[in-house]
Amino acid sequence: RAKEVGRNSYRYYSPAMNRDAQERLALESALSGAIENHQLSIHYQPKVDILSNRISGMEALLRWRHPTLGDVPPQRFIPLAEDTGLIHSIGYWAMRTACAQNRAWQVSGSARLKVAVNLSVRQLVDDRLIDNISAILEETGLEACYLELEITETAVMAEPDKAVQVLKNLQQLGVSVAIDDFGAGYSSLSYLKQFPIRAVKIDQSFVQALPSSHSDSAITKAIISLAHSMECSVIAEGTETRQQFEFLREHACDSVQGFYFSEPMPADKFGKLLRSEENLRLH
Ligand code: C2E
Ligand code: MG
Ligand code: MG
Ligand code: MG
């Protein structure tokens, strides 16, 4: 950064920069107390089978509500949690909460579905990852086959050799893995085929411009056929319109997630959706 600024490097110390740094510090200290102060929660968003329109699973998404800062979006606090190392406690809190919730829904008689939890790059390379996941599954009573981890393409490609090993260990444990934000990063196809992955999530940046953008349509079709050739299922994230949904169905995408069907919602509301008749057919 200092290099970019060049001869005007005095700007580096400007009051504005100072304010940014102070704000970051304040946010960081607030985040470090977020768990014990009960400010975190999980929202759930359905994944919907494209042919039956039935809920086939759900993604767990962290929410942070601070008494004075209000709702802080994950886009803002997840990177901060990664930089500070808080991602470990927050990430395992999210996983434990989502697994316990999924187990509770199953025990109450709702359909048995997979809950997907996002895993950050620092968690992926954490040597205690497998032990911690095993402990969470044991503690919550959730069977491993009902937990899926979403790992971004960028995260697996950060240390691909390590990632291959971790993904194999997860597979052995019975936990499935989906590659998140696929197409947004750079993948080496030779690595990709070594990864034991069950699903690919098409990045929402491609889905948004469907079907009018020729290049995004072409990329989407290519990702679907690539995933199917690796025996992975494909889900399109950020599906908002009927046109997008129909394009995806016509091109054999397996499922969709997005505002077209439902926004992420609090656990009690999602539980009602699972129990309700609507679950049989959302549209
Ligand atoms: P992601 O895993 O790619 O999650 C999808 C994001 O798209 C979510 O944003 C979701 O609310 C949003 N979304 C869903 N449907 C639509 C739609 O139709 N249109 C649009 N425009 N957006 C849609 P959210 O909840 O703000 O989360 C943002 C990112 O924060 C996630 O991206 C994920 O990378 C990260 N994140 C969230 N929860 C966790 C967590 O527990 N652990 C970790 N490590 N990261 C998390
Ligand atoms: Mg995700
Ligand atoms: Mg995603
Ligand atoms: Mg994303």
UniProtKB/TrEMBL annotation:
This is EAL domain-containing protein. It is found in: Cell membrane. It comes from the Bacteria. The chain holds residues 750 to 1032 of 1032 of the full protein. Residues 24-278 form the EAL domain.
